[in-house]
Design goal:
By secondary structure, the chain is of the alpha+beta class. The protein is built from three helices and three strands; from the N terminus they run αβαββα.
């Protein structure tokens, strides 16, 4: 909700529960933002991750998430 309200620019969560995120993801999109999984596909309740943003920084958040996942897998 804070993304939709403009209080924060983005939100990343690797394993959200759909009941915690579904309404907020829809509200973010209705407010002009973006909600995707870590691959950049539109978020659905079946997505394993979420990146929600104001839309302006979404590409950067995807890059950050990709780098974090890659670094974790390479350990």
């Amino acid at each position: 909700m804070q993304v939709a309200q403009g209080k924060i620019d983005g939100y990343i969560h690797p394993k959200p529960e759909p009941w915690d995120i579904a309404a907020a993801a829809l509200i973010v999109e209705m407010a002009g933002g973006k909600a995707t999984n870590f691959v950049g596909e539109p978020w659905t309740p079946f997505s394993e991750s979420i990146i929600a943003s104001n839309g302006y920084i979404h590409t950067q958040l995807l890059e950050i998430a990709y780098a974090a996942v890659t670094a974790t897998r390479n350990r």
